[in-house]
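ok, trying the design again with the full structure, not the truncated one.
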């Protein structure tokens, strides 16, 4: 019994010691202090540079998913749904961010391209989720001053977890949107710390 307790203690310590550290958002370049002032920020979602699941690009992902469908009409239907989901990612991301930061100086929106700044949410990698793996999204945010066109900051947002595939999260879009919501909330927490 004593041997079992010692073995379990050593195992628990090793798991704790080798557990990956939780990553935090960080400024990669520029200066994020402009967010401390009252301003408007237009949110745009750009998936064009993202790798998806184990594939290098969205084009590869679409091709892979189309080949898995039983017929051309089902493949077309899937791709149409994916394109609609993609539009929803940006709207949903912007809306979650707007609500989570409504008490902060900068006001985020998805419908005013004439804002003071533009924030391009650029996913680096997207996991769409499986029955044994959660969806996730890792992003970088590129902030540009709209009047001058000058890039003012790039902020890295580590992967945020969404949902697994299952009866409560049946579609790819639904699972990715859940991960996007987590990412937007991570930005809001980063913003709150910035204001302190």
């Amino acid at each position: 019994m004593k041997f079992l307790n010692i073995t379990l203690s050593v195992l628990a310590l090793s798991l704790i010691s080798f557990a990956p550290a939780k990553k935090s958002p960080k400024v990669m370049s520029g200066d994020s202090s402009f967010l401390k002032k009252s301003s408007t920020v237009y949110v745009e979602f750009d998936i064009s540079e993202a790798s998806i699941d184990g594939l290098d690009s969205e084009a590869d992902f679409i091709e892979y998913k189309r080949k898995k469908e039983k017929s051309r009409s089902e493949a077309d239907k899937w791709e149409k749904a994916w394109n609609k989901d993609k539009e929803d990612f940006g709207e949903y991301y912007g809306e979650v961010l707007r609500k989570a930061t409504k008490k902060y100086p900068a006001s985020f929106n998805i419908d005013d391209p004439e804002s003071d700044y533009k924030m391009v949410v650029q996913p680096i990698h997207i996991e769409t989720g499986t029955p044994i793996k959660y969806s996730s999204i890792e992003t970088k945010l590129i902030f540009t001053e709209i009047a001058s066109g000058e890039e003012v900051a790039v902020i890295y947002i580590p992967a945020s977890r969404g949902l697994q595939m299952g009866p409560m999260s049946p579609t790819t879009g639904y699972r990715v949107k859940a991960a996007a919501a987590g990412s937007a909330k991570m930005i809001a927490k980063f913003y709150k710390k910035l204001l302190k």
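Keeping the full-length input from now on. Residues 72-100 form the longest helix (29 residues).
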